[in-house]
Amino acid sequence: MAYPMQLGFQDATSPIMEELLHFHDHTLMIVFLISSLVLYIISLMLTTKLTHTSTMNAQEVETVWTILPAIILILIALPSLRILYMMDEINNPSLTVKTMGHQWYWSYEYTDYEDLSFDSYMIPTSELKPGELRLLEVDNRVVLPMEMTIRMLVSSEDVLHSWAVPSLGLKTDAIPGRLNQTTLMSTRPGLYYGQ
C-alpha cells in the first residue's frame, strides 16, 4: 500500500514486480552515471581553457561517442525485453478470472466455477468506516489464492478502463470489444488495492 510522500514503488508482491524494481534500479544507475559524466564535462568546459583544438576533429572521439551510446542502449534494452516476455507468458494457469469494466464498477466472474460472479462497487465516502481508504475500498473484494498462476481476462462494457494493481506490477487496459489477458501470481498473502 502506498503512503503519503512516498518516493519509491510499493513493496513488490509478485516475481514480475520484483523484476521491474530491479530493472528500474539498473536503468536509474545508468542514467545517474551518464548525468554525472555530462555534468562533469560541462563544468570542465566552463572552467578550463580548451588547449587541444585538434581533439575535437579526431576520428577516434567520434567513433567512441557513436559506439558508447549504442552499447548503453543495448544494456537497457536486453533486460527490458526479457521482462516484457516474462509478463506476456502464460504458464498453464490454475484459475481464470474474467473482469468486465463498467462505468462505475467492475464485474468479476470465476470462469472455472459455475455461476460464481459478482459486482464490485466503490464504497461512497459517506459510508466509510474508520480506517478505510477513500476511493479504494469496495463492497465485494476479489479473493485470489497465493503462489498460484492466475489468468485475468480484462474487457469493458462501455468505455476505456484500466485494471491495475501496482504492488503486483499489473496494469491492463479494458477496451470495449477487445479481450486482454494478463497473468498474476502473489508470493505473500495480503490486501492489495488497485487503482
Automatic annotation (TrEMBL):
Keywords: Copper, Electron transport, Magnesium, Membrane, Metal-binding, Mitochondrion, Mitochondrion inner membrane, Respiratory chain, Translocase, Transmembrane, Transmembrane helix, Transport. One of its GO terms (molecular function) is copper ion binding. It comes from the Eukaryota. InterPro entries: CcO_II, CcO_II-like_C, CcO_II_C, Cupredoxin, Cyt_c_oxidase_su2_TM_dom, Cyt_c_oxidase_su2_TM_sf. One of its GO terms (cellular component) is mitochondrial inner membrane. Residues 92-195 form the Cytochrome oxidase subunit II copper A binding domain. Residues 1-91 form the Cytochrome oxidase subunit II transmembrane region profile domain. One of its GO terms (biological process) is ATP synthesis coupled electron transport. It catalyses: 4 Fe(II)-[cytochrome c] + O2 + 8 H(+)(in) = 4 Fe(III)-[cytochrome c] + 2 H2O + 4 H(+)(out). Its main location: mitochondrion. Binds a copper A center. This is Cytochrome c oxidase subunit 2. The gene is COII.
